[in-house]
């Protein structure tokens, strides 16, 4: 079993472990105006959390790539997510954040990011050997969702079922994959597409569901799988099917659906003769000179 296969399979139990930290960890106060940042997968978890936090009415929350934080905006706090704790853009952001209070979620408790942040929540049990992130990112999101008061048990059960189910799509059936989300699952859709690009060098994109008709649907054809993470308007599903594309509805809790995408990315990589643990041109962390 590859490292990523082990890490994907461990997600339900690791999510539960992360969610148990929600009450005692130094996480953002409800009602605070918050900026959240990360890079790559961590950015998409930041976007999902920001949307979920605002939907819960727990405070204005903006999510940015760490390299694109607008200058001059005032926030009550800043949260960064970084698996390795060494990502250059995150370190630069933390260094420029003062006097804004900062919190870091990382897998490495003694990392440079942890040393720079005012408070750190470490998830060493969610760390990974694979370059491609899966369980750390979803565990960070599970922690944050639990802190919002969201019950993680349905997600855990959905993920357990997803590990036993067939793939969401046949790996060699399609040449294009498009993922759709709404609300907090827009971030999950972006993460799903990234996993296929990273692990399997696949042509994959992601959109807010109602934006799909505004251009991207022009690419849909019989070789395209359009996969929903969360509920999607029924008329949009009909429009997708009329293009000849295969529409795959989400019948799971969204995090459970993401586990199915992780499985698809691994299987597609294997079908193409690729090593999903070590994708080309990528490293565990981007450290700039």
Describe the structure.
This protein has 289 residues and is α/β, with parallel strands linked by helices. The chain folds into 2 domains: 3-150, Glucose-6-phosphate isomerase like protein, domain 1 (Rossmann fold, 3-Layer(aba) Sandwich), CATH 3.40.50.10490; 154-271, Rossmann fold (3-Layer(aba) Sandwich), CATH 3.40.50. It has helices at residues 3-9, 11-19, 41-55, 88-96, 112-116, 135-147, 153-164, 185-200, 234-242, 254-271, and strands at residues 34-38, 61-65, 77-82, 102-106, 119-122, 176-181, 203-208, 224-229, 246-248. The longest helix has 18 residues, at 254-271. The two termini are 35 Å apart.
Give the key terms.
289 residues, alpha/beta, Rossmann fold, 2 domains, 5-stranded parallel β-sheet, 4-stranded parallel β-sheet, 10 helices, globular
